[in-house]
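Posting for a labmate who doesn't have an account.
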Amino acid sequence: MKELVEVIAKSLVDCPDEVVVTETEKDNSIVVELRVAQEDMGKVIGKQGRIAKAIRSVVKAAASKDDKKVIVDIVQ
């Protein structure tokens, strides 16, 4: 999941070198934290959170075959 989020985020931002994705596993869920440059935050979140919601939907669909819950957090 980490690689998927990283590829999506790097394609959206102006500073792809500053994209940092960390993945931690807790119980039966995976938490993916996405950090981007401050000026790219709007591009990752989108108007009314549409892009963030789309990223979460894609990751959730990819994780459905593993029967694990995936949480994508966009951190400042």
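Reply:
Got it, the structure tokens are right above this. The two ends are 20 Å apart (CA to CA).
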